[in-house]
Amino acid sequence: GLAYGLLAGLKPINGLYTSLIPVFIYALFGRSRHLSIGTFSLMSLLLSDMILGNYEAYLPRLNATALELPLNYTAVEYAKLQSAIVGSFAASLIILAIGVLRLGFFMRYVSDSMLKGFTAAAAVQVLVSQLPLLLGVKPERTVSQFKIAGSLINLFQVIETANFVTMGLSAACCAVLYLVKEFINPLVKKKFKVPLPIELLIIIITLLASEFSNMSSNLGVVIVGEVPRGLPVPIIPDLGFLPTVFPSAIPVGIVGGVVTMSLAKMYCLEFQYSYDFNEDFAILGVSSLVSSFFQCFFACGALARNSVVVSVGMKSQISSLISCSGMLLVLLAIGPYFRSIPTCVLGSIIVVSLINVIKQVTELPQIWRISRIDFSVWLVAALSVLILDVTLGLAIGLGFTLFSVVLRTQSPRIAVLGRIGDTDIYRNVRVYAAAEELPGLKIVRFDAPLNFANAERFQDFVLQLAHEARRPTEAEPVGRVEAEHPESDEATAVHTFVLDCSSWVSVDMVGVRTVKETYQRLKKQGYRVLFARCKESVRLHLHLHDFYKHADRSLFFISLHDAVLYASNVPPISQDEISSSSEHVNEAIEIEGEEGMPATNLVTMDTNL
Asked: Which segments constitute the STAS domain (predicted)?
């Protein structure tokens, strides 16, 4: 708590308050049995950005009102506190509104890839922000949007003032923390299930060393300073400052909500119990909303804390209440003794805690093998944060994630299916070596809803197959399209196309028109067209768009195997049927031309076949 209060740009005591008040409220009303909320490094970083970007705007308000400052607060410290509690109040309102209006489904658009890339890059930014503490320097604050680059430039400008004692203490703390967490604690947990509390031990040891050697005066090591005893005094957030802070509070609310609900979802699935996300959003919002009146900043779930409490057998929020009792003891009795803790020790604890988050970059090769789009989302989210800052990085990451949904819809997989042996199982011939195409048939599966974004790709793919499979006497030019499919055997006289519609969960107007045009053009070229496994909702949509005026209902089959058996036992399409199809095409052209699309354009499209 002390470390994360410092990371947020506030007094360390504010971190302790945040580890008590919101945790207690959520423990009483929260719906997740395993979720433990409180301070979190990423949330402290976002709050730090929000505070540094807004506290100077509050100083004129403070001077104008001639407000009497609370005990032990300077004007700048109080302005930072108001920025934090007003921003947390705003973020809590966002979370509360999402829960009350049952808008939690919006959080599904924050993909795992985006969240991992964002958090990994944000962890790097947190690490950079802690370097001044580890080196014992005070660089100027970065005001540009290029946060990491600006921070490093400002750091190097004052690097000659670094305190060597602080540097040595930081290096020793980081080394011990890393060794214990990575190598010793895994062995300890096998025997006792509870990890060695190395952070607490480090704090106690350095606290005693600082107190007895008077590090602050004799060696110039910066210490935490005064830690007040007792419960927090209520301070009302200045709601007149809310419009100024609100834009900066949006990323705090979104990231805090997503991280918290992701953890809650993970544990409710692992331990198999029902969970209402919207209700818990509201409870999380209320807990942080009330806490903002008690000098607390926004609280959310943290993976490290949850991992510890679950590993020791947490089954209810009673463990959070026990944690609160310990924190209460610290505030009422032990807190003032923390004044001599070197700030570089708290910075070391933060830096080492981020290692596992930064290690997420090692997942990139696996993500690349699984999905290039997910890889791109991860990379864009991470680079946006690294190059710019957290707030802009979040906005760019979310925008690109939504764009990736469009990309997936626009460029779905299209498969040519083959039959596996004498079974009724059909699989992609490019994936399954045992799947073989049937003589005279082309079975095509389009793995996406058919809509305006991808209908042209569907049509181009099918017509390209038709062009490559066409008998030489019927060959005519078709525009070149890009599609991935196995080369057709020119010796095979393909007479029937079977469209596997099982992946068509929906079809829009453009999709229906494309299916109709594709059907008519294939039929005009001498192919029979069958439809298999078409969902009722899609068939209804086809009916509403008069598709059955051009295609008989008998061409639709419940199973793919039924369609294949039918196609294998009927003769190729006759010339009379082809002629009939040509008349239907011309009728459709006239109808569509009257409905708004220029008939001349459609005729041109038709004659180009």
From this structure: 431-567
